[in-house]
Amino acid sequence: MATSCVIIVALLISCATLLDAQPKAKPPDQTNFINCDKGLSGCDISLLSSDELKKVAESSKKRNSENCLSGSTLCDPTRLTAIEAAAVQVARYRRNLDRCLNVSANCDPLSLKAKDLEAVRVAVKKHNYEKCLNGSPTCDPSQLTREQSAGVQGALARRNRDRCLSGSSLCDPLLLTPADAASVRASYLRRNRDRCLEASSTCDPISLTESEAKTVHAELQRRNLSSCQNGLAACDPLALSEADLNAARNAFRLRNVEACKLGRPACDPSLLTGPEMASVMAAFQQRRSRLDRLRQQTSKP
After folding, report:
1. CA 272/CA 3 separation, integer angstroms
2. Residue 234, SS3?
3. What is the dihedral of CA 146, 148, 152, 157, to 10 degrees?
4. Reported pTM
Protein backbone atom coordinates (compact mmCIF):
# COMPACT_ATOMS: atom_id res chain seq x y z
CA MET A 1 0.00 0.00 0.00
CA ALA A 2 2.83 2.38 0.86
CA THR A 3 4.56 1.54 -2.38
CA SER A 4 1.40 2.44 -4.36
CA CYS A 5 1.16 5.84 -2.64
CA VAL A 6 4.77 6.61 -3.50
CA ILE A 7 4.17 5.71 -7.15
CA ILE A 8 1.06 7.95 -7.34
CA VAL A 9 2.91 10.91 -5.81
CA ALA A 10 5.78 10.43 -8.26
CA LEU A 11 3.34 10.39 -11.19
CA LEU A 12 1.68 13.63 -9.98
CA ILE A 13 5.05 15.37 -9.69
CA SER A 14 6.00 14.24 -13.19
CA CYS A 15 2.76 15.61 -14.63
CA ALA A 16 3.25 18.95 -12.90
CA THR A 17 6.78 19.19 -14.25
CA LEU A 18 5.58 18.47 -17.80
CA LEU A 19 2.88 21.11 -17.54
CA ASP A 20 5.40 23.71 -16.35
CA ALA A 21 7.77 22.80 -19.16
CA GLN A 22 5.15 23.48 -21.85
CA PRO A 23 5.44 27.00 -23.45
CA LYS A 24 2.87 29.46 -22.11
CA ALA A 25 0.60 31.30 -24.51
CA LYS A 26 1.73 34.89 -25.17
CA PRO A 27 -0.71 37.70 -24.33
CA PRO A 28 -2.25 39.38 -27.37
CA ASP A 29 -0.25 42.31 -28.82
CA GLN A 30 -1.83 45.57 -27.62
CA THR A 31 0.30 47.91 -29.78
CA ASN A 32 -2.35 48.47 -32.44
CA PHE A 33 -5.09 49.08 -29.86
CA ILE A 34 -2.87 51.59 -28.00
CA ASN A 35 -2.12 53.44 -31.25
CA CYS A 36 -5.83 53.60 -32.09
CA ASP A 37 -6.82 54.59 -28.56
CA LYS A 38 -4.30 57.47 -28.55
CA GLY A 39 -5.09 58.55 -32.11
CA LEU A 40 -1.63 57.69 -33.42
CA SER A 41 -0.79 57.08 -37.09
CA GLY A 42 -0.02 53.35 -36.67
CA CYS A 43 -3.68 52.46 -36.03
CA ASP A 44 -5.42 49.69 -38.05
CA ILE A 45 -9.09 49.67 -37.02
CA SER A 46 -9.75 46.51 -39.04
CA LEU A 47 -7.85 44.55 -36.38
CA LEU A 48 -9.92 45.84 -33.47
CA SER A 49 -12.59 43.89 -31.65
CA SER A 50 -16.05 45.36 -31.09
CA ASP A 51 -15.20 46.27 -27.48
CA GLU A 52 -11.95 47.88 -28.60
CA LEU A 53 -13.78 49.87 -31.28
CA LYS A 54 -16.11 51.27 -28.64
CA LYS A 55 -13.18 52.29 -26.41
CA VAL A 56 -11.36 53.91 -29.34
CA ALA A 57 -14.50 55.84 -30.31
CA GLU A 58 -14.93 57.14 -26.77
CA SER A 59 -11.26 58.20 -26.61
CA SER A 60 -11.61 60.02 -29.94
CA LYS A 61 -14.68 61.95 -28.71
CA LYS A 62 -12.91 62.84 -25.47
CA ARG A 63 -9.82 64.13 -27.33
CA ASN A 64 -11.98 66.25 -29.63
CA SER A 65 -13.83 67.74 -26.65
CA GLU A 66 -10.53 68.61 -24.95
CA ASN A 67 -9.18 70.15 -28.15
CA CYS A 68 -12.29 72.32 -28.46
CA LEU A 69 -12.10 73.39 -24.82
CA SER A 70 -8.44 74.44 -25.23
CA GLY A 71 -9.10 76.26 -28.52
CA SER A 72 -6.97 73.87 -30.56
CA THR A 73 -7.15 73.93 -34.35
CA LEU A 74 -7.76 70.15 -34.19
CA CYS A 75 -11.23 70.79 -32.76
CA ASP A 76 -14.19 69.51 -34.80
CA PRO A 77 -17.26 71.33 -33.38
CA THR A 78 -19.68 69.14 -35.37
CA ARG A 79 -18.85 66.17 -33.12
CA LEU A 80 -19.75 67.96 -29.89
CA THR A 81 -22.87 67.28 -27.90
CA ALA A 82 -25.07 70.17 -26.84
CA ILE A 83 -23.58 70.15 -23.32
CA GLU A 84 -20.01 70.02 -24.68
CA ALA A 85 -20.72 72.82 -27.16
CA ALA A 86 -22.03 75.04 -24.35
CA ALA A 87 -18.90 74.36 -22.26
CA VAL A 88 -16.69 75.14 -25.27
CA GLN A 89 -18.51 78.43 -25.80
CA VAL A 90 -17.89 79.42 -22.18
CA ALA A 91 -14.18 78.52 -22.45
CA ARG A 92 -13.84 80.47 -25.71
CA TYR A 93 -15.52 83.52 -24.17
CA ARG A 94 -13.18 83.41 -21.15
CA ARG A 95 -10.10 83.18 -23.38
CA ASN A 96 -11.23 86.19 -25.40
CA LEU A 97 -12.02 88.14 -22.22
CA ASP A 98 -8.53 87.40 -20.86
CA ARG A 99 -6.97 88.62 -24.11
CA CYS A 100 -9.02 91.82 -23.97
CA LEU A 101 -8.17 92.46 -20.31
CA ASN A 102 -4.48 92.02 -21.21
CA VAL A 103 -4.92 94.42 -24.14
CA SER A 104 -3.95 91.76 -26.68
CA ALA A 105 -4.19 92.43 -30.39
CA ASN A 106 -6.23 89.21 -30.73
CA CYS A 107 -9.06 90.59 -28.58
CA ASP A 108 -12.56 90.57 -30.11
CA PRO A 109 -14.44 93.31 -28.21
CA LEU A 110 -17.63 92.83 -30.25
CA SER A 111 -18.26 89.42 -28.67
CA LEU A 112 -18.05 90.75 -25.09
CA LYS A 113 -20.96 91.36 -22.76
CA ALA A 114 -21.69 94.89 -21.59
CA LYS A 115 -20.39 94.35 -18.04
CA ASP A 116 -17.17 92.78 -19.29
CA LEU A 117 -16.73 95.42 -21.97
CA GLU A 118 -16.65 98.14 -19.31
CA ALA A 119 -13.92 96.25 -17.41
CA VAL A 120 -11.93 95.97 -20.64
CA ARG A 121 -12.24 99.73 -21.24
CA VAL A 122 -10.83 100.35 -17.76
CA ALA A 123 -7.93 97.94 -18.45
CA VAL A 124 -7.19 99.62 -21.79
CA LYS A 125 -7.07 103.08 -20.18
CA LYS A 126 -4.82 101.80 -17.39
CA HIS A 127 -2.49 100.18 -19.93
CA ASN A 128 -2.35 103.41 -21.94
CA TYR A 129 -1.58 105.41 -18.79
CA GLU A 130 1.32 103.08 -17.97
CA LYS A 131 2.69 103.46 -21.49
CA CYS A 132 2.49 107.24 -21.20
CA LEU A 133 4.28 107.15 -17.83
CA ASN A 134 7.09 105.12 -19.43
CA GLY A 135 7.34 107.47 -22.41
CA SER A 136 6.18 104.87 -24.93
CA PRO A 137 5.65 106.22 -28.48
CA THR A 138 2.31 104.33 -28.59
CA CYS A 139 0.91 106.44 -25.74
CA ASP A 140 -2.43 108.09 -26.55
CA PRO A 141 -2.57 111.30 -24.47
CA SER A 142 -6.18 111.94 -25.52
CA GLN A 143 -7.31 109.06 -23.25
CA LEU A 144 -5.68 110.51 -20.12
CA THR A 145 -7.60 112.20 -17.35
CA ARG A 146 -6.43 115.54 -15.92
CA GLU A 147 -4.77 113.79 -12.99
CA GLN A 148 -3.11 111.24 -15.27
CA SER A 149 -1.82 114.01 -17.56
CA ALA A 150 -0.22 115.71 -14.57
CA GLY A 151 1.42 112.43 -13.54
CA VAL A 152 2.71 111.84 -17.07
CA GLN A 153 4.16 115.35 -17.25
CA GLY A 154 5.91 114.80 -13.92
CA ALA A 155 7.39 111.50 -15.13
CA LEU A 156 8.55 113.18 -18.35
CA ALA A 157 10.25 115.95 -16.37
CA ARG A 158 12.02 113.40 -14.15
CA ARG A 159 13.26 111.38 -17.13
CA ASN A 160 14.51 114.52 -18.85
CA ARG A 161 16.27 115.69 -15.66
CA ASP A 162 17.99 112.30 -15.31
CA ARG A 163 19.13 112.44 -18.94
CA CYS A 164 20.48 115.94 -18.45
CA LEU A 165 22.28 114.98 -15.25
CA SER A 166 23.99 112.08 -17.05
CA GLY A 167 24.99 114.28 -20.00
CA SER A 168 22.74 112.48 -22.48
CA SER A 169 22.27 113.99 -25.93
CA LEU A 170 18.52 113.46 -25.46
CA CYS A 171 18.42 116.11 -22.73
CA ASP A 172 16.01 119.00 -23.36
CA PRO A 173 17.28 121.90 -21.21
CA LEU A 174 14.12 123.93 -21.94
CA LEU A 175 12.07 121.50 -19.83
CA LEU A 176 14.25 121.96 -16.72
CA THR A 177 13.15 123.94 -13.70
CA PRO A 178 15.63 126.56 -12.40
CA ALA A 179 16.63 124.22 -9.55
CA ASP A 180 17.12 121.27 -11.92
CA ALA A 181 19.07 123.47 -14.34
CA ALA A 182 21.45 124.43 -11.52
CA SER A 183 21.95 120.75 -10.59
CA VAL A 184 22.57 119.83 -14.22
CA ARG A 185 25.14 122.64 -14.55
CA ALA A 186 26.97 121.46 -11.44
CA SER A 187 26.98 117.88 -12.75
CA TYR A 188 28.40 119.06 -16.09
CA LEU A 189 31.20 120.99 -14.37
CA ARG A 190 32.16 117.92 -12.32
CA ARG A 191 32.30 115.75 -15.44
CA ASN A 192 34.33 118.38 -17.29
CA ARG A 193 36.83 118.59 -14.41
CA ASP A 194 37.24 114.80 -14.46
CA ARG A 195 37.77 114.83 -18.24
CA CYS A 196 40.42 117.52 -17.89
CA LEU A 197 42.18 115.53 -15.17
CA GLU A 198 42.22 112.55 -17.55
CA ALA A 199 43.59 114.75 -20.36
CA SER A 200 40.52 113.95 -22.46
CA SER A 201 40.05 115.69 -25.81
CA THR A 202 36.54 116.66 -24.68
CA CYS A 203 37.89 118.76 -21.79
CA ASP A 204 36.68 122.36 -21.78
CA PRO A 205 39.40 124.30 -19.93
CA ILE A 206 37.37 127.51 -20.10
CA SER A 207 34.75 126.00 -17.76
CA LEU A 208 37.33 125.25 -15.06
CA THR A 209 37.52 127.40 -11.96
CA GLU A 210 40.87 128.86 -10.95
CA SER A 211 41.46 126.21 -8.31
CA GLU A 212 40.38 123.42 -10.69
CA ALA A 213 42.71 124.73 -13.37
CA LYS A 214 45.63 124.62 -10.89
CA THR A 215 44.73 121.06 -9.88
CA VAL A 216 44.48 119.95 -13.51
CA HIS A 217 47.80 121.63 -14.39
CA ALA A 218 49.55 119.92 -11.46
CA GLU A 219 48.12 116.53 -12.44
CA LEU A 220 49.20 116.93 -16.08
CA GLN A 221 52.72 117.91 -14.93
CA ARG A 222 52.89 114.86 -12.68
CA ARG A 223 51.85 112.54 -15.53
CA ASN A 224 54.30 114.11 -17.96
CA LEU A 225 57.16 113.76 -15.46
CA SER A 226 56.25 110.10 -14.93
CA SER A 227 56.25 109.52 -18.70
CA CYS A 228 59.64 111.21 -19.08
CA GLN A 229 61.18 109.30 -16.16
CA ASN A 230 59.98 106.00 -17.66
CA GLY A 231 61.11 106.90 -21.18
CA LEU A 232 57.61 106.84 -22.65
CA ALA A 233 56.75 108.39 -26.02
CA ALA A 234 54.14 110.61 -24.34
CA CYS A 235 56.89 112.57 -22.61
CA ASP A 236 57.00 116.28 -23.42
CA PRO A 237 60.38 117.53 -22.16
CA LEU A 238 59.55 121.15 -23.06
CA ALA A 239 56.76 121.11 -20.45
CA LEU A 240 59.15 120.11 -17.64
CA SER A 241 60.54 122.49 -15.08
CA GLU A 242 64.30 122.62 -14.59
CA ALA A 243 64.12 120.37 -11.54
CA ASP A 244 61.83 117.86 -13.26
CA LEU A 245 64.06 117.87 -16.35
CA ASN A 246 67.10 117.02 -14.20
CA ALA A 247 65.12 114.23 -12.51
CA ALA A 248 64.14 112.86 -15.92
CA ARG A 249 67.79 113.00 -17.08
CA ASN A 250 68.94 111.11 -13.98
CA ALA A 251 66.30 108.45 -14.58
CA PHE A 252 67.41 108.15 -18.21
CA ARG A 253 71.07 107.85 -17.16
CA LEU A 254 70.22 104.99 -14.80
CA ARG A 255 68.18 103.23 -17.53
CA ASN A 256 71.08 103.66 -19.97
CA VAL A 257 73.55 102.10 -17.51
CA GLU A 258 71.24 99.10 -17.02
CA ALA A 259 70.75 98.75 -20.78
CA CYS A 260 74.52 98.77 -21.31
CA LYS A 261 75.05 96.19 -18.55
CA LEU A 262 72.52 93.89 -20.22
CA GLY A 263 73.92 94.52 -23.71
CA ARG A 264 70.67 95.94 -25.04
CA PRO A 265 70.51 97.94 -28.32
CA ALA A 266 69.19 100.99 -26.39
CA CYS A 267 72.60 101.40 -24.72
CA ASP A 268 74.43 104.66 -25.56
CA PRO A 269 78.03 104.14 -24.38
CA SER A 270 78.94 107.79 -25.15
CA LEU A 271 76.81 108.84 -22.15
CA LEU A 272 78.60 106.60 -19.68
CA THR A 273 80.93 108.09 -17.07
CA GLY A 274 84.17 106.39 -16.10
CA PRO A 275 82.71 104.57 -13.07
CA GLU A 276 79.62 103.61 -15.07
CA MET A 277 81.78 102.16 -17.87
CA ALA A 278 83.73 100.21 -15.25
CA SER A 279 80.51 98.74 -13.83
CA VAL A 280 79.41 97.77 -17.36
CA MET A 281 82.76 96.06 -18.02
CA ALA A 282 82.46 94.21 -14.70
CA ALA A 283 78.96 92.99 -15.60
CA PHE A 284 80.19 91.60 -18.94
CA GLN A 285 83.19 89.96 -17.19
CA GLN A 286 80.87 88.26 -14.69
CA ARG A 287 78.70 86.89 -17.49
CA ARG A 288 81.75 85.58 -19.38
CA SER A 289 83.03 83.90 -16.21
CA ARG A 290 79.70 82.17 -15.63
CA LEU A 291 79.63 80.96 -19.24
CA ASP A 292 83.20 79.63 -18.97
CA ARG A 293 82.32 77.67 -15.83
CA LEU A 294 79.24 76.22 -17.50
CA ARG A 295 81.29 75.14 -20.52
CA GLN A 296 83.90 73.48 -18.29
CA GLN A 297 81.23 71.61 -16.33
CA THR A 298 79.51 70.35 -19.48
CA SER A 299 82.81 69.30 -21.13
CA LYS A 300 83.81 67.06 -18.21
CA PRO A 301 83.21 63.34 -18.87
Report:
1. 130
2. coil
3. 60
4. 0.53
